[in-house]
């Protein structure tokens, strides 16, 4: 009798869980979120980097839903795009090379060198990082527009973890 009751309950929970929509970015030109750093290596864009390289990992939510993305992360059209991140009067230009599974939609996970351009490594996590792609050819960009997104569009999460990178192909952590 217990098994007869458990199966319909299990199936109901499974259906409700599977029916949740996958979050998608509403703006593919940039955003506002948190910044963290991670130890690099082989990235989801298929290249190997070191911690001194100026690369960044985008949120898996942003990376996976970027227009033109396929099941092969190495072929994602966002790979190689340059963006500039701003934080408390400092800025750094980095190249997209990885995806971050622990990041909220507009969060960025930098190499230690990239993060240090914005803040001391001992801080670990910074909130209110405003960033935008450097070219007007990014998906959803208005031609000729290269403005920094409004800080009120912050979609970052409040987590105390320093290192949120969990790339499909890197051995971070």
From TrEMBL:
Biased composition (Polar residues): 138-149
Source organism (scientific name): Lentinula guzmanii
Keyword tags: Signal
A Pfam family it matches: DPBB_1
Sequence ranges assigned to domain RlpA-like protein double-psi beta-barrel in this UniProt record: 33-126
Bias (Low complexity): 150-159
Location of the region described as Disordered in the Swiss-Prot/TrEMBL record: 138-173
Domain of life: Eukaryota
Statement: the UniProt record of this protein carries the keyword Signal: yes
CDD domains for the chain: DPBB_RlpA_EXP_N-like
Signal peptide (from-to): 1-19
Designated name of the protein: RlpA-like double-psi beta-barrel-protein domain-containing protein-containing protein
Composition bias, Acidic residues: 160-173
């Amino acid at each position: 009798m217990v098994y007869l009751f458990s199966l319909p309950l299990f199936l109901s929970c499974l259906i409700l869980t599977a029916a949740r929509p996958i979050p998608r970015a509403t703006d593919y030109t940039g955003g506002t979120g948190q910044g963290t750093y991670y130890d690099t290596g082989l990235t989801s864009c298929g290249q190997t980097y070191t911690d001194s390289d100026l690369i960044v990992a985008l949120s898996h939510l942003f990376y996976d839903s970027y227009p033109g993305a396929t099941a092969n992360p190495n072929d994602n059209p966002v790979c190689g795009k340059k963006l500039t991140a701003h934080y408390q009067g400092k800025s750094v230009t980095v190249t997209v090379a990885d995806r971050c599974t622990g990041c909220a939609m507009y969060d960025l996970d930098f190499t230690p060198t990239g993060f240090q351009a914005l803040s001391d490594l001992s801080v670990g996590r910074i909130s209110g990082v405003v960033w935008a792609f450097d070219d007007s050819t990014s998906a959803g960009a208005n031609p000729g527009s290269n403005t920094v997104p409004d800080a009120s569009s912050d979609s970052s999460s409040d987590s105390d973890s320093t290192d949120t990178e969990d790339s499909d192909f890197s051995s971070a952590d």
